[in-house]
Automatic annotation (TrEMBL):
EC number: 2.1.1.228
Protein name, entry field: tRNA (guanine-N(1)-)-methyltransferase
Quaternary structure annotation from Swiss-Prot or TrEMBL: Homodimer.
Gene of this entry: trmD
A GO biological-process term: tRNA N1-guanine methylation
Gene3D superfamilies in alphabetical order: 3.40.1280.10, tRNA(m1g37)methyltransferase, domain 2
Alphabetical list of InterPro entries matching this protein: Alpha/beta_knot_MTases, tRNA_m1G_MeTrfase_C_sf, tRNA_m1G_MeTrfase_TrmD, tRNA_m1G_MTases_N, tRNA_MeTrfase_TRMD/TRM10
Localization: Cytoplasm
GO cellular component: cytosol
The tRNA methyltransferase TRMD/TRM10-type domain, residue ranges: 1-226
Residue spans crossing the bilayer: none
Transferase is among the record's keywords: yes
Primary localization class, coarse: cytoplasm
Binding locations of S-adenosyl-L-methionine: G111, L135, G136, D137, Y138, V139, L140
Length: 241
C-alpha cells in the first residue's frame, strides 16, 4: 500500500519512522510520502489560507494549493482514495479501517484552521474516491493527529503487519464486543488473584468465561455496541423463533 500525506506540518509525521509503522515501511509493506502543502503555492509568501466568504472567525484553506497537490499525487487511473479528516465527517470505525486497508493508494489531506474550501473535496471526488472521516465527537486543531490515528488503524490490518493474525480477530471491535481482560504471571500479585478459570487449562470454560466478560464489559461501558451487534448478527435458525 502507498500512503501520501498532504500537510502544512510535515514534521508531525516523523513518528511514522518508528515502531510497527517503521518496520512496515522498512519491509516495503507500506510506502509513505509526506508532502508540504506550501510546495504547491505559487505566491512569494506561500499562502495557504484566506478569510472566509460570509465572514466569521478564523481562516479557510485556499482551494488552489490543494488542487495542485492532489493533481500531482492522485493517480490518473482512478485507483486513489482521498481521505479528508474532519469533525464534520462520518465516524471512522474498525469497519472503515478494514475497508481502507483493502485500497492500494490512500491520500490523507490534513486541513488546519477552520477547514478547507468546500469545493476541494468536491474537486477531489472528480479525480478520486473520497472519504470525509471524523475520529469522534470532539474537535482537534487539524487533520494531522486524526490522520495518524487512521493510518495506524489501517496499516496494522494489512496482511503481514502483525506477527499473529489471531491477535487481530480477538481484539475489541472486530467482533462487535470489547475485549476480555488479560493477565500474566504472577498468579498472585499484591493480594490480587488471576481468575481461577484461566489457570484451569479447560479451554471450553476459558472461552465461555472470556465471552461472558466481553458481554459484561460491553454492557457496562458501551451498551450502544450491543445494539449494533444484535443488528449485525445473523438471523437465528427458524426453529429457535
Ligand atoms: Cl478527523 N479532525 C479534526 N480536526 N478534529 C476531529 C476529527 C478530525 N475527529 C474528531 N475531531
Amino acid at each position: 500500500m502507498r500512503i501520501d500525506i498532504i500537510t502544512i506540518f510535515p514534521e508531525y509525521f516523523g513518528v511514522l519512522d518508528v515502531s510497527l509503522m517503521g518496520k512496515a515501511r522498512q519491509s516495503g509493506l507500506i510506502d509513505v510520502g509526506v508532502h508540504d502543502l506550501r510546495e504547491f503555492t505559487t505566491d512569494r509568501h506561500r499562502t495557504v489560507d484566506d478569510t472566509p466568504y460570509g465572514g466569521g472567525a478564523g481562516m479557510v484553506m485556499k482551494a488552489e494549493p490543494w488542487a495542485l497537490a492532489l493533481d500531482s499525487i492522485v493517480r490518473a487511473d482512478g485507483t486513489s482514495t482521498v481521505v479528508f479528516p474532519t469533525p464534520s465527517g462520518t465516524v471512522f470505525t474498525q469497519r472503515s479501517a478494514r475497508e481502507l486497508s483493502e485500497h492500494t493508494h490512500l491520500v490523507f489531506a490534513c486541513g488546519r484552521y477552520e477547514g478547507i474550501d468546500a469545493r476541494v473535496p468536491e474537486y477531489a471526488a472528480s479525480i478520486a474516491s473520497v472519504r470525509e472521516l471524523s475520529l469522534g465527537d470532539y474537535v482537534l486543531n487539524g487533520g494531522e493527529v486524526a490522520s495518524m490515528a487512521m493510518i495506524e488503524a489501517v496499516a496494522r490490518l494489512i496482511p503481514g503487519m502483525v506477527g499473529n493474525p489471531d491477535s487481530l480477530a480477538e481484539e475489541s471491535h472486530e467482533g462487535g464486543l470489547l475485549e476480555y481482560p488479560n493477565f500474566t504471571k504472577p498468579a498472585l500479585w499484591r493480594d490480587r488473584e488471576v481468575p481461577e478459570v484461566l489457570l484451569s487449562g479447560n479451554h471450553a470454560r476459558i472461552s465461555g468465561w472470556r465471552r461472558d466478560q466481553q458481554i459484561a464489559r460491553t454492557a457496562a461501558v458501551r451498551p450502544d455496541l450491543l445494539a449494533t451487534e444484535a443488528e449485525d448478527a445473523p438471523e437465528p435458525p427458524k426453529a429457535d423463533r
